[in-house]
Specification:
single chain; alpha/beta; 6-stranded parallel sheet; 4 helices
């Protein structure tokens, strides 16, 4: 298997992106990014002659600074886009995903929308996180958490119902 190439700099590898890099490393897959081949940021077709080996996959990791280099739809290497915050502007994300062979949809319930939009290969996948961030001594748990996050948007109606039920039962 060839390396995995992320269309971002190492400094963009935070949270989920860092977790995926660690997962690839654990599986023995070499990881490359723009720090290794800056020319790929202009045209990804340069990766077809990569001295490290032709990548098995080019991933757009939904980084803070989106990058859409030339050659993305012509390159002979499979491409994928991580849609980490799938629920943010989902229609725009579905259209943008058409530039990639695979759309990795990281929130349940959106795969059908991508299929309806015409994407041939949306894949529901879950977030990955760096294990070392959560390793260490186990502390006693003295709190129960019912929900985390906002309840004021349409997509959070179920959370809002749980909160109301919790208040009623209290």
């Amino acid at each position: 298997m060839g390396p995995i190439f992320f269309l971002c700099r190492r400094s963009d590898l935070v949270r989920e992106r860092l977790g995926y890099r660690a997962a690839f490393a654990d599986a023995g897959v070499k990881f490359l990014c723009l720090d290794d081949y800056p020319a790929a940021g202009r045209d990804v077709r340069v990766l077809e002659t990569c001295p490290e080996g032709v990548p098995s996959l080019i991933v757009h990791p939904d980084a803070a600074a989106p990058l859409l280099p030339d050659g993305l739809v012509e390159v002979q290497i499979p491409t994928a886009v991580f849609q980490i915050d799938t629920f943010v502007a989902p229609e725009r994300r579905a259209r943008w995903s058409m530039l990639f062979d695979h759309a990795i949809v990281m929130h349940a319930g959106f795969r059908g929308m991508y299929l309806s939009a015409g994407h041939p290969c949306p894949i529901e996948f879950f977030h990955c996180i760096e294990r070392s961030l959560f390793e260490g001594e186990v502390r006693p748990k003295d709190l129960e958490v019912a929900s985390v996050g906002r309840t004021d948007a349409t997509i959070y109606k179920e959370r809002e119902q749980y909160e109301k039920a919790k208040e009623y039962l209290a």
